[in-house]
Amino acid sequence: VAGWQALQKKIRHYRPRTIAFLGIGAYRIASGDRVARIGPQETALAGASVWALPNPSGLNAHYQLPELIELYGGIRDANAPAAAVEEEQRSRSESVKTPASPAQKK
Predict the structure, then answer these.
(1) DSSP string, 56-99
(2) Average pLDDT, integer, range 20-33
(3) Rounded to whole angstroms, how far apart are CA atoms 10 and 37?
(4) pLDDT digits (tens, 9 = 90+) for 32-82
(5) Chain centre distance of CA 60
(6) What distance in Å separates the CA atoms of residue 53 and residue 37, rounded to the nearest whole number?
(7) Are 21 and 52 in contact (CB under 8 A)?
(8) Contact, 54 vs 71, CB < 8 A?
């Protein structure tokens, strides 16, 4: 409870539009919402929209890179102008489909 209240105080101070919890388990414990799912949450926190996203750790085998890109891009897309979202989605889908050649990586 004290940690949740401290987090709310920081959110009120910094006033982000959106916050993300990395790891659904962490979000469920912190919020007390035992049935929360990955993605945007219905309840705001101190005025900020809330997202629960998969932990990006390489130890998390449940989500592969294309899924992580899609999920993490969703939070950005929710906060971006429509034209920028469309352009980034096009770019993201092309980069996932066509990985850089060894020469391009240098």
Answers:
(1) --TT-TTS-HHHHHHHHHHHHHTTS-HHHHHHHHHHHHHHHHSP
(2) 93
(3) 24
(4) 999 999 999 999 999 999 999 999 887 777 888 899 999 999 998 888 876
(5) 15
(6) 9
(7) yes
(8) yes
